[in-house]
Amino acid sequence: MIVIPAIDLIDGKCVRLTQGDYNQVQLFNLDPVEQAKFFEKNGAKYIHIVDLDGAKVGRPVNFEVIRNIKRTTCLTVECGGGIRDKATVELYISSGIDYIILGSVIFKNPDFVNEVMKMFGKEKFIASLDFKDGFVKLSGWQETTKISIEEGIFKIKDLGFERLIYTDITTDGMLKGHNFEAAKYIRKLFGGFLTASGGISSKEDIIRLKSIGIDAAIVGKALYTWQLKLEEVINIL
Which CATH entry fits the domain spanning 2-233: 3.30.420.10, 3.20.20.70, 3.30.230.10, 1.20.1250.20? Predict the structure, then answer.
């Protein structure tokens, strides 16, 4: 089980949202680079970064911050948010970013997804499936669809993704535990490397996800509020 700390970016600062609501923003660190270094010092090998401004407007906004995190740490960086054209993919990959996360564009422009996966290799990309009440949400969780979780995963598999991050928006930022029924359901549907996100707030949550067969867990607000200490869970095998 890989435990991956999360950094969400708005205006170049490290923040957390509650249930994806841009009106419920908590500021946790003015310096995301120092936050990433702190996570690395406490045992992290990976970091999950989302450009929330980028996700909202459809283009990179906090690229320089993300590049500085990659330059100044030894962390494996996966990042997403507003990555919707080939030039942006090239920009991130040329800057050493290890994994590019694609979300909304999977459903809005699958031809683009096919193109960049062929050009750069599908192993560089991670699909992101965000949902609420059983249906996929797009554009930084601002856009509701009628796409079911199952339909979304079939589309992701059809495009050839080998890695998937899923988030139940209802649990995200609530510190009340993960949607384990969704974890079981998605594990059955997707055979590749699967990362859970949303509401993970205790060591027991992580152990339970491991027992379901989840490969990695993204942890955000629980780390920032000290409800969970990274050094106590980073080495769960």
Answer: 3.20.20.70
